[in-house]
Design goal:
With 91 residues, the protein is mostly helical. It has one domain. It is 64% helix and 4% strand. It contains three helices and two strands, in the order αββαα. The chain has a two-stranded antiparallel sheet with strand order 1-2. A hairpin with a 2-residue loop joins strand 1 and strand 2. The radius of gyration is 25 Å and the shape is flat. It starts with 5 loop residues before the first helix and ends in a 6-residue tail after the last helix. The relative contact order is 0.05.
């Protein structure tokens, strides 16, 4: 990585090195100085991961279904549902 002045380069490298040194000292990952809930439950981490993946996939499915229904109303049914949700200037 080269910059226009060598002072900026040295400062950036010093920042990276100090950050890396500090990150090696911690053994816990905290969020806003609070320990994350359920982080110590190693027996149920697999179950929590499976539930998280399932709920994420369901969310993506329903978002896609919602968008498909909106486009179907606009292009197939042509009932003005999508236009009714827009501002009055676009009707």
């Amino acid at each position: 990585m080269q910059t226009s002045s060598s002072g900026n380069y040295i400062a950036e490298e010093a920042f990276k090195n100090s950050f890396m040194q500090q990150s090696r000292m911690t053994t816990q990952f905290d969020l806003y100085s609070m320990q994350l809930p359920l982080a110590g439950l190693t027996t149920s981490n697999h179950l929590i991961g499976e539930a998280h993946q399932f709920l994420g996939n369901m969310f993506i499915f329903f978002v896609g279904l919602h968008a498909t229904a909106a486009l179907a109303h606009h292009f197939i049914f042509k009932d003005g549902v999508l236009k009714s949700m827009l501002a009055k200037n676009y009707k």
